[in-house]
């Protein structure tokens, strides 16, 4: 969340392998709990500056998006993503709010910024 490499904290750690038990007790399906997703931190700082760049991948079939966000406390957050044909700016901005990368108040501003960027790069010359 903070620091020069904010995405490193999202790596999934693998649990150590445990020896298998020969007989496992049967679990009552009514008592089985579904795992609840962990809540994400809410971003409290607002974005003061945004920069965006899009490039075609080497095979020229997919766009790669690089987004640089500068937050109120001068923290630089650089995010990159391979765009899918079904991706749109509003969904991407909403997802960034959901995962705690941007403040909720910045969602619409970022969605408009991304939409303008998409038109700039994807529209034929």
From TrEMBL:
UniProt region (Disordered), positions on chain: 20-41
Highest taxon above the source species: Eukaryota
Protein's recorded name: NRBP2 protein
Organism listed in the record: Nyctibius bracteatus (Rufous potoo)
């Amino acid at each position: 969340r903070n620091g020069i490499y904010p995405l490193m904290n999202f790596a999934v750690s693998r649990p150590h392998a445990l020896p298998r038990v020969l007989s496992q007790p049967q679990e009552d399906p009514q008592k089985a709990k579904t795992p609840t997703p962990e809540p994400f931190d809410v971003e409290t700082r607002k974005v003061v500056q945004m920069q965006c760049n899009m490039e075609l991948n080497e095979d020229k079939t997919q766009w790669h998006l690089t987004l640089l966000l500068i937050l109120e406390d001068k923290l630089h957050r650089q995010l990159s993503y391979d765009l899918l044909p079904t991706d749109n700016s509003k969904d991407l901005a909403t997802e960034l709010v959901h995962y705690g990368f941007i403040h909720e108040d910045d969602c619409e501003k970022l969605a408009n910024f991304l939409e303008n960027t998409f038109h700039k790069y994807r529209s034929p010359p």
